[in-house]
Design a protein that fits this description.
The chain has 136 residues and is an alpha+beta fold. It folds into 2 domains: 34 residues, no CATH class; 90 residues, K homology (KH) domain (GMP Synthetase, Chain A, domain 3). The protein has a 3-stranded antiparallel sheet with strand order 1-2-3. Strands 4-5-6 form a 3-stranded mixed sheet, with helices on one face.
Length: 136
């Protein structure tokens, strides 16, 4: 399986602007700029998209891990905070709030750590990955 995305950028790094389109067209000429990346401008940015990818990938991987252990989650809510420092992504911090009927705290932690280590996005990120996981 392969997936594609296209970026178009016009102008200088600080004053230019661009757009992103994904194969599925979920992003369809979605704007991004210096302001949306480094300030609070309208549009998306690469770090936000990496955070979304990490949250989604981790949640799905955890669902598979839980299924393999005999559990079906009612809900998995995952937030990823990606840090960009001095031009380098240095960390992705995952916060998980999970509702999983019948699971023990130890089994929950084991499954969450497995998903953190083995989701495809975690494997590709070259940064510190941390996890705060709680059952709700």
């Amino acid at each position: 399986m392969k997936r594609t995305a296209t970026a178009v950028w016009n102008g200088s790094g600080k004053d230019g602007k661009g757009n992103l389109t994904t194969q599925s067209t979920t992003l369809n000429k979605t704007q991004y700029s210096y302001k949306s990346r480094f300030e609070e401008g309208v549009g998306t940015n690469p770090e936000e998209l990496i955070a979304a990818a990490h949250s989604g990938c981790f949640a799905m991987k955890l669902s598979f891990v839980l299924g393999g252990a005999g559990f079906t989650p009612d809900s998995l809510e995952v937030t990823s905070t990606v840090a960009l420092e001095d031009g380098t992504i240095t960390s992705s911090h995952l916060v998980l709030k999970a509702s999983i009927p019948g699971i023990s705290a130890d089994k929950f932690k084991e499954c969450a750590e497995d998903a953190k280590a083995n989701c495809p996005v975690s494997k590709v990120l070259n940064c510190e990955i941390t996890l705060d996981a709680s059952l709700v």
